[in-house]
Amino acid sequence: MKTKTRYGHFGNLSANYAQARQGFPAEVFDLLWSKLNMPRPKILDVGCGTGISTRQLTQRGANVIGVDRDQDMLKRAKENQEPSINYISAAVTDLPFEDESFDAVCAFSAFHWFANNKALGEIYRVLKPQGAFFIVNKVDDGDFKTGYRMVMAPFIEGHMPDPTQKYQWSDLLAKNHFGDIETKYFPAIEKFTFENAIAYLQSISLWNLVSDSRKTEALKAMTDFCLSKRDSEGFINRALQIQAVLATK
């Protein structure tokens, strides 16, 4: 099967994704566990990618199934697979599970790719009564994202998409019968080595919009950008607000 390389697909970027993408702070999982209040919840991690959040959920004691449509991302996830994790290739709009199967469904840095009524209907269906839907996003709180988008803009023809701007999560959740919606923010800083910062920029979906003929030139521009962002210890810092949205079926 040919790997898709268009915007919104990550399979061809999976090596850089696995190298450079970072996990989520403990406070995020504390919030979810305060809702679940059980020792070994059954959790579905949708849009699990290379399994970063899936492994963190498992380390908290959950019984986790990770779902992603991209076989290449799942292949990377299975390279670091923990015994209690099961990975399944499926679309969020057509989940292969029985009704009321999970105590929680989670979407870490993924909900913007399937923020639609059909996907939410499926998530609602597989949740147990009073089950939790947990959405976590990394919201840039500094100039890192605006900086790299400016650097990449000359190498991308036409409009530069930003999927995180496409939806209003509160309206979508309410429309799809979720209640008790609460949002919390947790400040965080991701620190990248120079090499991992370059890998990170080549793991974002915008990289697929740079034509092969211009990738060398674009990589040079991104290298200059990362060099300019190094702190006194040589790290590149990405300031974040971790947005955690918790809703109940």
UniProtKB/TrEMBL annotation:
Gene Ontology MF term list: S-adenosylmethionine-dependent methyltransferase activity
Domain of life: Bacteria
Keywords: Methyltransferase, Transferase
GO terms (BP aspect): methylation
Gene3D superfamilies linked to this entry: Vaccinia Virus protein VP39 (3.40.50.150)
This protein's record includes keyword Transmembrane helix: no
Domain Methyltransferase type: start-end pairs: 44-135
Family label: Belongs to the methyltransferase superfamily.
Protein name: Methyltransferase type 11 domain-containing protein
Annotated source species: Candidatus Terrybacteria bacterium RIFCSPHIGHO2_01_FULL_43_35
